[in-house]
């Protein structure tokens, strides 16, 4: 499909500025143009221009095609998820969540490790929170699994999301100093160049956030373009001194989880991290003065990132489902009781879908199969003698698959 050319490219293509301006007006006045009510001022020579543009977009063929593909892939993901046990779905979700949260931190330059996030996930699942790092981040994303989504009805909701998501990670000097948000001007610098200036003060922030809420609730706008233009505008406003990127990507993910499937949603930051330059380029082009507020190409770029993440999910699921079938066949080749076979199958699912998660303890297995520890220990001892599992930890007592059984499933 032919590339959609943004207004900026025509500014440099046309020799006569009048031809360029005629094209701008033609696009803005097109009866199919969708106007968002979001008002922006482009950055010109490192300062916000006094000229304002309303963000709009056109239903380009690329947007229509990508929308169709994204819906279709989301349905394919749901179909594949239904082939998994509830336990396997849970392992896949949390394993992917760890990668997503690591990516959203990494994009912002926040130091974290996958193991640190995994430990937080494990403690939250066991209701052992305390002052664990990233607890708020994990909790909010974890709600997607429970089909609980953060809603935004007034500007205070943005602050509440920030409070729970990132406040504990933000330095004291970067905490909001206004009634709800920052009250002083901010700028983003790359090298020795200013690449963005946020809204001037808290009143401007509140005005633009109210515009954003109106856009997010505008039923006349298709939901994917609406979602991604809202993402741009939140970053444009730069509501807080720190944490804007993580809050903005969370809001996108919450919206996508509500409208698509949760796996598509929690892959978004991971996809951005893999194609970071494309992500930043889309923002820069959207903010260019010669783009005059057209969001068509920005939406196309974000939809491509979303679709790329979905394809990664499909590949994970296809490989995982194949390995599940293979593990069943491998287990059938061993002389096992049905209950021992099911215990091993749980450990196989953990190995296939939850490799970044903490190991399943013997206590977990006892609860899952409603077995006394005495009965379970006898079964586990039998599996150890057969060379199928081994002790990984003694406190809490934890067994894992042996290298032998892993190789049978993954490599032969």
Which labels suit this protein?
412 residues, mainly alpha, Fic-like fold, Arc Repressor Mutant, subunit A, 2 domains, two-stranded antiparallel sheet, 18 helices, 8 strands, 59% helix, ATP binding, Fido-like_dom_sf, Fido_containing, ATP-binding, nucleotide-binding
Task: Describe the overall structure.
The protein has 412 residues and is mostly helical. It folds into 2 domains: 32-314, Fic-like fold (Orthogonal Bundle), CATH 1.10.3290.10; 320-410, Orthogonal Bundle (Arc Repressor Mutant, subunit A), CATH 1.10.10. Helices cover 59% and strands 9% of the residues. The protein is built from 18 helices and 8 strands. Strands 1-4 form a two-stranded antiparallel sheet. Strands 2-3 form a two-stranded antiparallel sheet. A two-stranded antiparallel ribbon has the order 5-6. A hairpin with a 2-residue loop joins strand 2 (43-44) and strand 3 (47-48). It is elongated and about 80 Å long. The two termini are 42 Å apart. The model has no long low-confidence stretch (mean pLDDT 92).
